[in-house]
């Protein structure tokens, strides 16, 4: 009785919500067709046409020869009125209903219907209906018979039993491809099959260790599906794209899902009142699991181009410059747009080489990426900004972007045209300090009548106290100090030149500085509440820091290589585990329905602490 009442209240709430939503969209004429997306052979179903404007006439249906029309059209009218904040609004809908039965199995298209309203014709949407074969257990006589198997949209029936069979309720984890290249996307789908109404109470997906995951936004809906001869109510409740981060055999573990099946139990009394009032339902708990799946991840082949930075998929590239004419101390912008399908969000930016005399700034990156069942696709736009300090004619070399195409199993390189740039001298007032040092000299002029004579005797210098300065101890000491400062400057300069020549050393030395700058960006994202961007920034910060600190090229940056280099670097097992845990937290953050701000702050502090511990290793 309680369950039946709850279902009735839920139905009424959904109906009222749908009506309220319809009011918002009732500014124009809408004419909509609806029917189940799947039915069972021999099952009756309703085809309805609904219009939201009065005065409808001359309804014309499409060809329905694949179905037997049992009844229709029957017409019903619904009117409603509501007052919100003193404003009155009303809605109207008229529904035309046909009762149909399929003549054969298969997939059928029902074309648009048409209706006439005030001398204007309107067309509805078209429909696709899949007709499934009868459930093979539907005519077995004894045992359970699922409601879906019998053609109903509701729950199955149990003969007084308090258990649900393994073939009546289960979850399947479907992996689209079990043999892929490193960084090649894999679609993983979780789908529930049930003969009963069911709720999932506790959901624990597998830990995708060794993968980066990109979830797909879903709007789960129940539909009928024939699987192994049974007609199940099915729903896809999770899809994700996995990008393997290392080669070899990687196993996706089991998922665990606590389900509650609402099973109608036949009462021995056979009372019709029990059936009508819902007293014959029983909630049965069942733990559902998925089987582990092993993925064979092939390493990327040898012969990587110099411009390869880990991109896998299929891409196009467009490079532009804001102008081929510029002035000194004015910004020059080169924009590179990458478009394609693959791990575009994880791929490192292509390199743009500006002339040596240009002051180069960090690039600005914008992404517009959508993840669907076919993978992650979209655009990544990078703006490279530099300021020329001297006039002249310059050339920005061709920009190259290489990626691995898993379909052809080969590397491909995209190349832009080089950019010619003519730089003219800008206004003097805009000159930078480096340019101002080369200002013109002026003759000294005495103004007014204060003209001084030229002394012909040898000068001598005295300090403010009147002592002779030239040849004194202070004079000699000043020269010695200047000489020492010059020597120290020369030694430091030579040391820096030597260090800068060693690119690996420069990357290692600057790793902490770059990481701290990116941590400030992550902190800003955290304060703004941009959680997904925060996790992406923390992941990139730590991943980039490890690449620079351990001197691992981006193309070879995998968890396995990082683990090996950490051991060589002197990091203990606890530090290595903490670093991997931070990366895992960022990867799986999207699984959590919501993350509290203190959780983000904790992750931020853990990242800063882990980087600090790494830096301490280099100081001892």
TrEMBL record:
Residue spans of biased composition, Gly residues class: 140-149
Taxonomic source organism: Tannerella sp. oral taxon BU063 isolate Cell 6/7/9
Name under which the protein is recorded: BatD protein
Origin superkingdom: Bacteria
Low complexity bias (residue ranges): 150-161
Entries under InterPro entries matching the protein: BatD
Signal peptide: 1-26
Residue stretches spanning the membrane: 468-493
Region of interest: Disordered: 140-161
Keywords: Membrane, Signal, Transmembrane, Transmembrane helix
């Amino acid at each position: 009785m309680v369950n039946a009442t709850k279902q009735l209240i839920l139905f009424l709430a959904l109906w009222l919500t749908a009506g309220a939503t319809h009011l918002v969209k009732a500014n124009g004429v809408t004419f909509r067709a609806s029917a189940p997306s799947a039915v069972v052979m021999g099952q009756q179903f309703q085809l309805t046409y609904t219009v939201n404007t009065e005065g409808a006439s001359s309804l014309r249906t499409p060809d329905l020869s694949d179905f037997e029309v049992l009844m229709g059209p029957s017409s019903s009218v619904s009117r409603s009125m509501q007052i919100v904040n003193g404003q009155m609004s009303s809605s109207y809908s008229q529904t035309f209903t046909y009762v149909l039965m399929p003549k054969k199995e298969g997939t059928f298209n029902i074309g648009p219907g048409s209706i006439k309203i005030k001398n204007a014709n309107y067309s509805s949407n078209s429909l696709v209906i899949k007709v499934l074969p009868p459930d093979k257990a539907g005519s077995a006589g004894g045992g359970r018979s699922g409601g879906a198997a019998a053609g109903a949209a509701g729950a199955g029936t149990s003969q007084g039993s308090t258990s649900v069979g393994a073939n009546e309720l289960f979850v399947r984890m479907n992996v689209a491809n079990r043999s892929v290249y490193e960084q090649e996307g894999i679609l993983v789908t979780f789908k529930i099959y049930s003969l009963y109404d069911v709720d999932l109470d506790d959901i624990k997906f597998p830990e995708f260790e060794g993968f980066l995951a990109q979830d797909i936004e879903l709007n789960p809906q129940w539909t009928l599906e024939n699987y192994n001869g049974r007609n199940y109510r099915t729903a896809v409740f999770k899809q994700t794209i996995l990008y393997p981060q290392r080669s070899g055999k990687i196993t996706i573990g089991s998922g665990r899902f606590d389900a509650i099946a609402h099973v109608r139990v036949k009462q021995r009394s056979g009372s019709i009142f029990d059936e009508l009032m819902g007293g014959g339902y029983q909630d049965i708990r069942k733990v559902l699991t998925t089987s582990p799946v092993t993925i064979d991840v092939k390493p990327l082949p040898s012969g990587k181009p110099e411009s390869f930075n880990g991109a896998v998929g299929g891409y196009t590239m467009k490079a532009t410059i804001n102008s081929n004419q510029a002035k000194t101390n004015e910004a020059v912008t080169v924009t590179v747009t990458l478009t394609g399908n693959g791990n575009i969000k994880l791929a490192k930016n292509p390199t743009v080489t500006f002339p040596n005399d240009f002051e180069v700034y960090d690039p600005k990156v914008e992404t517009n990426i959508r993840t669907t069942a076919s993978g992650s696709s979209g655009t990544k736009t990078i703006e490279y900004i530099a300021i020329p300090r001297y006039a002249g004619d310059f050339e920005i070399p061709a920009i190259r972007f290489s990626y691995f195409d898993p379909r052809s199993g080969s590397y491909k390189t995209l190349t832009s045209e080089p950019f010619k740039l003519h730089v003219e001298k800008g206004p003097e007032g805009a000159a930078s300090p480096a340019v101002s040092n080369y200002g013109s000299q002026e003759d000294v002029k005495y103004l007014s009548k204060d003209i001084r004579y030229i002394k012909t005797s040898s000068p001598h210098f005295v300090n403010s106290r009147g002592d002779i300065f030239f040849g004194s101890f202070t004079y000699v000491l000043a020269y010695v100090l200047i000489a020492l400062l010059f020597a120290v400057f020369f030694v430091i300069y030579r040391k820096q030149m030597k260090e800068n020549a060693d690119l690996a050393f420069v990357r290692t030395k600057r790793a902490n500085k770059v990481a701290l700058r990116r941590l400030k960006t992550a902190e800003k994202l955290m304060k703004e509440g941009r959680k997904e961007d925060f996790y992406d920034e923390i992941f990139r910060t730590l991943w980039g820091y490890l690449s620079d600190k351990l001197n691992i090229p981006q193309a070879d940056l995998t968890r396995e290589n990082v683990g090996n280099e950490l051991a060589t670097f002197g990091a203990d097992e606890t530090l290595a585990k903490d670093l991997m845990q931070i990366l895992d937290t960022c990867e799986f953050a999207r699984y959590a329905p919501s993350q509290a701000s203190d959780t983000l702050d904790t992750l931020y502090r853990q990242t800063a602490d882990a980087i600090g511990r790494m830096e301490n290793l280099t100081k001892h």
